[in-house]
Amino acid sequence: MGKIGLALGGGGVAGSAHLGVLLALEEAGIPVDCVAGTSAGAIVAALYAYGYGPEELIGMVSAINKRYLDYDYLSLFLRLINRSVTVQGIIKGEKLRDLIVNKTGNTRISDIRRPLALLSSDLQHARQVVFASCEYRHDDNEVDVITDIPIADAVQASFAIPVLFRPVAHNGRLLVDGGIMDNCPVTAARALGADKVIAVNLVCANPVSTPFPSIMSVLSRVISMNLAIQARSIARHADIVLHPDVGTVGVLEFPKLHACIEYGYEHTRSRIKEIKETLGW
Questions:
Q1: Where along the sequence does the record place the motif called GXSXG (predicted)?
Q2: Which residues does the annotation mark as catalytic?
Q3: Which pLDDT band holds residue 253 (cuts at 50, 70, 90)?
């Protein structure tokens, strides 16, 4: 049957659907040998590879809410009165990083036993950056692989959505959300050694009746459309694609965390037979 890889895509709060996917796979006895994650998927992938099981991860969700959003009010205020003040993101991202530190300590990604890859994007050099816990077999000259970084730093760099979150500086790089270049890391799962890849794609751009009353609403729609097109293209390289119907969940819509877990769980359960057949069970 070979090694089974899991590619967890980005999607903000909708990323909690990955927990439902993991739980359903575990209940069905389907092992995950390696895992790759982008953005919200990186948070789940990192904690899972570290050693937390699906039920433990689901148990952590109730404590996650808006208090983890450390808005950079001071910089925003200073910017209003002093044009020379630089504001790189509305949210610092440090509290979410601290959450990962609390769960993983100062563990470096190279210390993780389960093959893991977390994706980020180098804003200055327009290159994909992959944080990998083990050998990462690829032949893409546009990809830089880093194996020596704390897990928490790698996760923060992966979920640093431009404008919303402050970019992460690391060894001369300015890193932002991995979803910009690859929002469904199937290729990364393959590079970790996966023979079969299950991809979880959470991005969609279904028709809407919204009149788009603001610049931000238009920008948000444009981004979701581009990510959806990108994810569909990349996901075709997976052996099976799971697409839980999480609907239109806001990136930071925390009250919907548990609903998204349920969506991921039910969708995966409904496709267990298909998954096993595809994997050759």
A1: 37-41
A2: 39, 177
A3: confident
